[in-house]
Write a structure and sequence with these properties.
By secondary structure, this protein is mainly beta. Helix content is 12%, strand content 48%.
Length: 128
């Protein structure tokens, strides 16, 4: 019986050591009005204007807005985000204003850029 308790304690410690906290950020912005917009790219990285990742988002506005979510972000990291629009022929717009989000902080900062920034970000923490 004591071995069962030791086993269960070790099993709990093993499982809990592999749990990590991850964040997801929800984005929304006003859809572009140009008729040739095919979609958007949401770029992000860990330093200003140095984006290491991106996601593709289709041009499917809901009530005139585009919505997207980025999953699996490290909660100990500060991220920089900017979006572009692209056409079916592959032309891509300039970057939007940059949004800075410190995952463990409650602040959102806007860095100046050539166009309008995404108006809101919702931070959700998830235990993975």
């Amino acid at each position: 019986m004591p071995y069962l308790h030791v086993f269960l304690i070790l099993l709990y410690l093993f499982i809990s050591c592999h749990l990590t906290w991850a964040a997801e950020l929800n984005f929304s912005w006003l859809a572009n009005s140009e008729p040739d917009v095919a979609g958007y790219r949401l770029y992000y990285g860990d330093s200003s204007r140095n984006y290491t990742d991106s996601i593709e988002i289709g041009h499917y506005p809901v009530d005139g807005r585009i919505y997207s979510t980025i999953y699996g972000l490290d909660i100990s990291q500060t991220y920089y985000f900017a979006a572009t629009a692209y056409s079916a022929t592959g032309e891509e717009s300039d970057f939007s204003n940059e949004i800075v989000q410190c995952i463990r902080c409650d602040t959102i900062e806007e860095n100046p850029g050539p166009s309008k920034a995404m108006p809101w970000i919702l931070l959700l923490l998830r235990d993975e």
